[in-house]
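Q: A reviewer asked whether we had any structural model of the full assembly, not just the individual parts. We don't, so I'm hoping you can provide one. Inputs are below.
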Amino acid sequence: MSDTVLMPQLGETVAEGKILAWFKSVGDEIKEGDNLFEVETDKVTIEIQAVVSGRLNEIRVSAGDVAKVGAIVAVIGGESPAKAAPQPEAEQAAAPKAAPWRNPFEEVSTPKGRYGPAKGPGDIRITPLARRLIAQNNVDIMRLAAEVKQRGGSRIDEQVVRSAMAASPPTLAPAPDAPRYTAPPAPLSGQTITLNAVRLKTADRLAENWRAIPHVFQAIEVDFTAIDRVRGKHKRVFQEAHGFSLTYLPFIARATCLAIQAFPQVNARFDGKFLSLSPTVSLGVAVDLSYNGLVVPVVRNAEDLTVAGLAKAMRRLIDKARSSKLGPDDLSGGTYSISNNGAFGTTFTAPIINAPQVAILSTDAIQLKPAVVSTPEGAFVAPRMIGMVGQSFDHRAFDGAYSAAFLSRLKQLLETRNWEDEFAGNP
Amino acid sequence: MGVAELSYRDAVIRGIAQEMDRDKRVVFLGEDIGKAGGVFKSTVGLYEQFGPLRVRDTPISEQAILGAAMGAAMTGLRPIAEIMFADFLAVCFDYVANEMSKLHYMTNGQLSCPVVIRTGNGGGARFGAQHSQSVENWTMMIPGVKVVAPSSPVDVIGLMAAAVRDPDPVIFHEHKSLYATKGEVPDGVIVDTLGTAKIVRAGGDCTIVALALMVPRALEAAAMLASEHGIDAEVIDVRSLVPLDTQTILGSVSKTGRLFTVEENPRLCGWGAEIASIVADEIFWDLDGPIVRITTPHIPLPAADHLEDLALPSAARIVDKVRRVLKA
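A: Here is a predicted structure for the entire assembly that you could use as a starting point for your response.
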């Protein structure tokens, strides 16, 4: 008996995947758990392991090709196709096509979008399919309604729309969601870069978020000297205990979670009518994939973690992201995000909000700068660790004063909290 | 490679024999299944072929049958257990709903329960309200079991093989009123796949999904709709309720824009309600009209001939409903 290898369901809304590479060749003996192939979807690149052992007898989808979720990509075990005896007809008729794996909470996936109201002009009823066809093909609904009324009918269905479309092809430009083919432009000069699926998806999302969300950007200057002192004290022990260095980011993440307690509206989802506050903080951390796209894996229940806990959780996600091991569950459900650009020495960044979230924090370089320090003896200029912390927020969700108060609270926490307490008992 | 005509009843015998022949761990137990050959004569010859150790008559106790089958499965055998009338699943429902179905999960995968529960389901044989029910929906709702209900002899053999070879408990609904029907079956070993539906008639105007006895009735109705009313219906044999082949169903309804379910189970919480819900959700924008369910009403099934015939969906009722709905 042979087993088929199917293109897995790699996310709630993923319909297909591109096989980037096969790690095994036809004829290889496969052991359960062996890496079989690498697949790229619009969300993530992931290695797929064999779930059965046996000989790899057939590869049906080659590297570089795209296959729908649930499609057979390879066959393991059984007789090799060359010498397999012809199967009885009944067996062939029932070629395996087991249902693809689905997230148990997303067994049914609701389509996105709406195509106009159920009732049209003069209270005429329009079937869902007819509504979609009308919207996608820019059919004149007034004319359809008049025609149907004239015939004594009360409903616009598929047939009505299709016959109207056949009679007069649409003259208007096609609706934005109708599929349109555009030829790739001839290169101006030099090299043309073919963008990968992650890059294209990132591009689509960013463009849509930038278009739909009225962004406002605010930034506040923060004195990180107190944190720098605590960080300096624990850096070596932390590095020895965990194998990576303690950066400013987990401190900022911790302070953000604490500030959110007082300003819950920044940790929310906006859906047009409602602002749904999230009871927990699922903190997205933007990770650059060596200039090849951007992913935002999520630390769940971030509010329960200490600085060290956040550092470890973020490190794990960043490692997974950089080695293309993120699963769909690592990427979904963020309620607030942080974009950290400090490594390159930038002064400030205005990031694009990751809808349906309503705000995103940006942090940049933290470096020694001359700053004015007030003391009982008077004001002095002193070298301090200074950095900008900014927030882009959705102006539909709240106003500038709320965002400013949040940033002010964040600054206060970063500068004056007793950070030493975070390390009590633990490195 | 020859093809022979075989009855649904003989297909059950051949399907069990094929698997017992292949795998010594497959054993078969139930009431009167041995020397008597089964009350529906669907196990004739198995006792003679495989002997009293592997084909066992049991006392009249459904709990004992499923308890023994579960124990046997836990200790390495692959039992097929017969519950004579599907109505009696209620007698041993604890084993079905709480024990077999949860074993693999609750032992964290240390144990599994590869049991096939064969059972005579459905009406049309004048057996009355306690021996005629179509209870596939009772079994469909239990997390941890798989549920199939074949409508043709070739599917009986192929799905029986798939059920026996599956590591989880599978409820195998045989339809009592289909035992005498015949169909073509090829020679040789037949193995099918759980979780797959079959398009048994292609068409473009509407999709009719049906199960077990309702499949031949839907096909009969589709032929009448085509010849008398110019309606070209696509008919899908769902075959497997768990796992459910939603892709085939959604693909068909996307194409036709209309869905009818033909269900022998009573209307309330029948399997078609679940399919209607999935279709209304996933492909709402492909629907060109309401989803319509044609079912047995929510009543205890009468024993009187003409009343039972009236209660179960007939080809004439399917034709009438589809025609009126599509015309409206």
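A: Points you may want to mention in the reply: The mean pLDDT of chain B is 96. Residues 45 and 135 of chain B are 28 Å apart (CA to CA).
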